[in-house]
């Protein structure tokens, strides 16, 4: 990897040679090759195997004999210096038009609006020279007017504003599963419930049970967390859980925090509310925020049903009925502040049943009302069951009900009062949208009223499509969402796949743009406690450690807020399918044989030893990246401008620029197994660049912006 920064301003080109599996970052006067990228050299354009033409009712206006003629040479797009990208500059008169791009002089393949079949509309108030550009990888066409530049005037100030940066969106997160981080207080291991593991949930030899980590352990290891450059700790849910669920071979414990019974109390396996307050105070003294992972979708599995059946029953088969017997859909009442009265005996497809010993187990008390749950059986993960079905048996809350919205607002406002700095919100897409429209506003307004202007909430919408993630940012007061699109694309790139995947990723950033939000706030991550670790995803590649480092390079040097999953900094990879329990190793000496036998990305065996080594290769690498990012505003919150994207394994390059610093930082990453070279244009002609990260010799751009 190389990072570079120039000393001059303007347009220019950057030549960077790319060493195998490397990243280069440079700025100012570039005096050394960017780390891992190497030197980019000019290459001759490759003849296009396919041809592309602009077609539409504007073709006769640009010299074609007919409109909608895919074989017209006057509107053909020519190859550019970037593989797979074609363009043409055309003078178009005033008027209203429609167009698309056709392939190989025929209609067998054509791309229009958003890369689809619809024509792209165009309206011009006067004759304009337009540059039409088509990207064969994304199938998207862009149009830019040329020759409209003029001098900057005072009148332009009215339409110029600083880029949007959501308050609280410049963090470097450390995501920690409290039970698996450090055991600072062994006296709370069983939570006072005795030695029977099926009662207490404590069995450090079983990966599905509590292993002993706690809040005191995090307090004891704050220096370790701080050393990674962490500015915010994100804790897995810390509320009191049902200790054990299931039976026999299916029994496991609530060590992860997602089986909540009491939303007002810290789980006694982890500590006390007072210990949490102490952690917050001690973290704040180090300049570190503390975030809670929270849930509104479900509680622990407490409600059974009289029928003893658990498959999902849809509303078409058995509708909800109010207390008088009239059928209704809860969605019709969501967000209205009103809701029908329900009867637990007649309103649901399954009649809810709660054991007498559990009748009052949930806190606050309103959660013990069985009519505030959907009671439809287990979700099938499709259709209406996504929001109405139980999450693998967990009691799915009727979040359409106004009492639930108000109740959860009060619950989490109390934790804001205690000192929490922000929330990661679990299972967001499994809760109706109207809930988020109201709940996020109420909680954010409460935080702001306390003077917490940087209070930040981000949701887990488990999907890699920005079109499905972004509405939660655009249409609610949720500050942001976890960037699953980044996770998918970054993992693919680090594994050696096409750099065009990153191009498509960042091309979707505009979906998050509003007058108040942008993609710069997205928490970016490489793996987690549900899907598995980045080390596992890359374990079958040619160079797991180097590719793991490359993935972290990408995360720390691009837009968004990087999230390190605890243990990744020690090279943890996991085994098996890489998911769930296989990605939840303890940093303290494990007693789980399966964990102890696992391989780290460095090739070592994890073993039954503490893993808090600040000299571990990945710990040092991440700490260096974090320090670089923290010391360079351009890398944390600056604009990001793509410079190059190879069509296959190779180089992805971009610039980062802070509007106040006005210094270009260049980043080039090579994911190929051999050295690579590319040519691209930068913002800074006639500049030399100082290397901030990486190795190599001096690089300079000439007056035209090209560099060797």
UniProtKB/TrEMBL annotation:
InterPro entries: GH (IPR017853), GH13_cat_dom (IPR006047), Glyco_hydro_b (IPR013780), Ig-like_fold (IPR013783), X25_BaPul-like (IPR054409)
A Pfam cross-reference name: X25_BaPul_like
Domain Glycosyl hydrolase family 13 catalytic: 175-629
Gene3D superfamilies: Glycosidases (3.20.20.80), Golgi alpha-mannosidase II (2.60.40.1180), Immunoglobulins (2.60.40.10)
Source organism, top-level taxon: Bacteria
Protein name (database record): Glycosyl hydrolase family 13 catalytic domain-containing protein
UniProt source species: Paraoerskovia sediminicola
